[in-house]
UniProtKB/TrEMBL annotation:
<dbReference type="Pfam" id="PF13193">
    <property type="entry name" value="AMP-binding_C"/>
</dbReference>
<protein>
    <recommendedName>
        <fullName>Acyl-CoA synthetase family member 3, mitochondrial</fullName>
    </recommendedName>
</protein>
<dbReference type="GO" id="GO:0006631">
    <property type="term" value="P:fatty acid metabolic process"/>
</dbReference>
<feature type="domain" description="AMP-binding enzyme C-terminal">
    <location>
        <begin position="492"/>
        <end position="568"/>
    </location>
</feature>
<dbReference type="InterPro" id="IPR000873">
    <property type="entry name" value="AMP-dep_synth/lig_dom"/>
</dbReference>
<dbReference type="InterPro" id="IPR025110">
    <property type="entry name" value="AMP-bd_C"/>
</dbReference>
<dbReference type="GO" id="GO:0031956">
    <property type="term" value="F:medium-chain fatty acid-CoA ligase activity"/>
</dbReference>
<dbReference type="InterPro" id="IPR042099">
    <property type="entry name" value="ANL_N_sf"/>
</dbReference>
<dbReference type="InterPro" id="IPR045851">
    <property type="entry name" value="AMP-bd_C_sf"/>
</dbReference>
<dbReference type="Pfam" id="PF00501">
    <property type="entry name" value="AMP-binding"/>
</dbReference>
<feature type="domain" description="AMP-dependent synthetase/ligase">
    <location>
        <begin position="59"/>
        <end position="441"/>
    </location>
</feature>
<dbReference type="InterPro" id="IPR020845">
    <property type="entry name" value="AMP-binding_CS"/>
</dbReference>
<comment type="similarity">
    <text>Belongs to the ATP-dependent AMP-binding enzyme family.</text>
</comment>
Length: 584
């Protein structure tokens, strides 16, 4: 059976070869998959997004700053683009893995280009056109992209990279929801078998580089599919959902969580060019039939919205504040991820909205792995339990057996087993399942190093299982500070410092020290009214709340803590910036 997309299907009510559990088909359901096995089952449900789109043709898929667009409109545009690319470029006809990079803006054209690339059976590599030239050159060279797809807006930049190998392809971008003559398009048939489609790599995302030079993470269609189904199961996604999207579209959070998952369900995505606290918060407060039902963001976004609320509504009447909370209560879910959520932010957001932020854990290589419950207690500072289809282990490296770990705790969504005598012990978090990535692009050695001999992916994050939930304790390399024989969690100190009413944000790092190994250093940004704080007063305040060895020996005051475009703090860069060999 081949992947065929007849455009005259738009008048039909049945699904094109879709055997998803949503459709009541009789083929193997995802529930029967063994999440411990990496090879694909011989039969797999044909529920990839490309097959689901026809279910939602009349519905509104996406609204951007220009217009609103139906599923059938975006689908037809994708078919047209895929046909033109296939006819024009010979490399796409060869039996090999083609990587197609594309410059994007946060609008409907992103989805059109992504779907077209997948219809060609190629790997999509989304690139932020605003990145430095040096970074883009590295991504295009390392990925060996055969084509660089772009809209007219970024044509000149795309052409400037043609000497690196990829052929620039200019796509006439959509500026409005113009009418389409559907009958003019032929069937799209590129002989893509269903099983082939799901096993092939789909998406390449470059890691943020917090642990070294960026690596291309290859995610297969199955990886994406399992992640999407896991989030639908955990967070109760439905077709009537409406989400505001303001995340970068070259990271898993923005691509899979906040875009592909709602589109898989037939929901509507309200896409903003970029995050703006005022625009997002006021959109939440709009009283109309298409009110927003959920939002996904990084902790920084919630902090900025809290700041906007305080500045705009802080002196408002209690009736006004209650009306705001009542409107926010219509929304069913707020999710926080991509960085640790400070407890004060969680508490303040709950005060404003009546919602307890749902914190989850994931990373580029594994997608989503752990989540607090949709219904039930959400423990501050915890990331809950595994998603469906995901297995986790917390273990300690076994120095006597190469590549293996001594198990502290192991389990999945339904059952967790703690090794006797190891209750409450910290260790490295390891993940296994069909959600885990295929490997690093052209880096087999690095891929091998990232897994144990039994197939567990080593996240490099420290965790502990306490009171029925997993709590993250920081990165193995940067969030664990070794001071005078102690192993100190930087996140623990950050959580305490964030409780100081004069601190806007902070970052704790370990700086090399000839006597103690590392000394504890806090980079601190103060609120406008906190400029009277000094090194001495902060240390005195911290001593009342932390053991002596955990009190920072140095407080570095800055106007703002540097972050990358996902709102993450790169502690290696910060250490180099403020305490490198050329700094005093």
């Amino acid at each position: 059976m081949f992947l065929r997309f007849p455009l005259d299907y738009i008048t039909s009510k049945s699904c094109v070869r879709c055997t998803a559990f949503h459709c009541g088909a009789t083929s193997l359901t995802v529930d029967k998959l063994d999440p411990m096995s990496h090879p694909m089952p011989t039969e797999f449900p044909c529920t990839h997004m490309i097959y689901k789109i026809p279910d939602y043709f009349p519905r509104t898929a996406l609204v951007d700053s220009s217009d609103s667009y139906s599923y059938v409109f975006i689908y037809a545009k994708s078919v047209s683009l895929a046909r033109r690319m296939y006819d024009a470029y010979d490399p796409l006809k060869r039996d090999k893995t083609n990587v197609i990079a594309f410059f994007y803006d946060n609008d409907v054209n992103y989805v059109v280009m992504l779907w077209a690339i997948w219809m060609l059976g190629a790997v999509a590599l989304p690139l932020n056109h605003a990145y430095p030239t040096e970074d883009l050159e590295y991504f295009l060279t390392d990925s060996m992209a055969s084509l660089l797809l772009t809209t007219q807006n970024h044509k000149e930049k795309a052409v400037s990279f043609s000497h690196l190998g990829p052929t620039p392809v200019v796509y006439q971008s959509i500026t409005s929801n113009e009418n389409l003559a559907f009958e003019r398009y032929d069937d799209l048939d590129f002989a893509i078998g269903e099983q082939w489609f799901l096993q092939k790599p789909a998406l390449m995302i470059y890691t943020s580089g917090t642990t070294g030079k960026p690596k291309g993470v290859l995610l297969s269609h199955t990886n994406l599919h399992i992640n999407i189904l896991g989030m639908i199961d955990a967070w109760r996604w439905i077709g009537d959902d409406r989400i505001v999207h303001s995340l970068p579209l070259n990271h898993v959070h923005g691509v899979v969580n906040a875009l592909l998952t709602p589109l898989y369900c037939g929901a509507t995505v309200y896409m903003l060019p970029k995050f703006d606290a005022k625009v997002v918060f006021e959109r939440f407060l709009e009283r109309n039939e298409d009110y927003i039902t959920l939002f996904m963001g990084v902790p920084t976004m919630y902090s900025l919205m809290i700041k906007y609320y305080d500045e705009t509504y802080g002196s408002a009447s209690e009736d006004t504040k209650e009306a705001i909370k009542e409107q926010l209560q219509k929304m069913r879910l707020f999710v926080s991820g991509s960085a640790a959520l400070p407890v004060p932010v969680l508490n303040k957001w709950r005060e404003i909205s009546g919602h307890t932020l749902l914190e989850r854990y994931g990373m580029t290589e594994i997608g989503m792995a752990l989540t607090n419950p949709y219904r039930g207690q959400r423990v501050p500072g915890a990331v809950g339990l595994p998603f469906k289809y995901v297995n986790f282990m917390i273990g300690v490296y076994n120095a006597y057996v190469k590549g293996e770990y001594e198990v502290i705790v192991e389990g999945n969504q339904k059952e967790v087993t703690v090794t006797e005598g190891k209750e409450g012990q910290e260790g490295e978090l390891l993940i296994k399942g069909l959600n885990v990535f295929s490997g690093y692009w052209n880096a087999p050695h690095k891929t091998t190093e990232s897994f144990t001999s039994t197939g567990w992916f080593k996240t490099g994050d420290m965790a502990v299982y306490e009171n029925g939930v997993v709590k993250m304790k920081g990165r193995l390399s940067v969030d664990i500070i070794k001071y005078g024989g102690y192993k100190i969690s930087a996140l623990e100190i950050e959580d305490v410092l964030q409780q100081n009413p004069d601190i806007q944000e902070c970052c704790v790092i370990g700086v090399s020290d000839i006597t103690w190994g590392q000394k504890v250093v806090a980079i601190v940004a103060l609120k406008p009214n906190g400029n009277t704080l000094t090194q001495e007063t902060l240390q005195e305040w911290a001593r009342e709340r932390l053991p002596k060895h955990k009190v920072p020996s140095v407080f570095k005051f800055v106007d703002q803590i540097p972050r990358n475009n996902m709102g993450k703090i790169n502690k290696k860069d910060i250490t180099k910036q403020y305490f490198g060999p050329k700094r005093k």
